[in-house]
Amino acid sequence: MVKDRATYGYRLVWARLRLAGHDRVNHKRVYRVMRDEGWLLYRHGEKPVDTRKHEGKVAVKESDVRWCSDGLELSCDNGEKVRVAFALDCCDREIMSWVATTKGIDAALVGDLMMQAVENRFGPDGKPPKPIEWLTDNGSCYTAAETRSFAKQLGLKPVTTPVTSPQSNGMAESFVKTLKRDYAKLADRPDSQTVMALLPKWFDD
């Protein structure tokens, strides 16, 4: 497992073992084994600390109260780029939908993203019983009048982070780092076609 997930710390390895059915494995034992084998990552205080401000609290106690979205760009060895956007529940952290393109993320793609997320949770003809906050940064694809109007039709309430503090969408930013660090960084990315083919497996995992 450590070989396949070289960026995982001992707690993530322990969590994956529990998901695989090894309920009796103690996290302290996982730590000791990884320490003795030299597989541990940074210790606290050794890794540079991110000093950016995170305003407010993104997480909520119930599902389907607040969803967040963000985008990322993955570079390929041949110079091509794949741009990805995703929708994440701020309670259970499920990735409900995602879209990818070799062009730019526009309002139409964000519309697809929102519709897929709603269908994932409430079915093809369903709609949230009450408006769900749709938290994003101030990217043009999110703030476009077309996007905001369609969001409201789907039962979503568009909310954007302060212009001076895009890090306020910390949960989405955290997932971006995870996808880049634990998957994209470790994968062969010769071209956009290869990356597009890998994305379903990465998101499913």
Quick recap:
39% of the residues lie in helices and 18% in strands. The chain has 205 residues and is α/β, with parallel strands linked by helices. It has 2 domains: 1-50, no CATH class; 66-204, Ribonuclease H-like superfamily/Ribonuclease H (Nucleotidyltransferase, domain 5, 2-Layer Sandwich), CATH 3.30.420.10.
In angstroms, what is the radius of gyration? 19 Å
Overall residue-averaged pLDDT value: 86
Series of secondary-structure elements, N-terminal to C-terminal: HHEEEHEHHEHH
Helix content: 25-40%
Topology, please?
Blueprint: H1 10-19, H2 27-37, E1 66-75, E2 81-89, E3 95-101, H3 107-122, E4 132-136, H4 140-143, H5 145-154, E5 156-160, H6 170-184, H7 192-204
Parallel strand pairs: 1-4, 4-5
Antiparallel strand pairs: 1-2, 2-3
Helix pairs in contact: 1-2, 3-5
Detailed description of the structure:
This protein has 205 residues and is of the alpha/beta class. The protein has two domains: 1-50, no CATH class; 66-204, Nucleotidyltransferase, domain 5 (2-Layer Sandwich), CATH 3.30.420. Helices cover 39% and strands 18% of the residues. A hairpin with a 5-residue loop joins strand 2 (81-89) and strand 3. Helix 1 crosses helix 2. The longest helix has 16 residues, at 107-122. The relative contact order is 0.14.
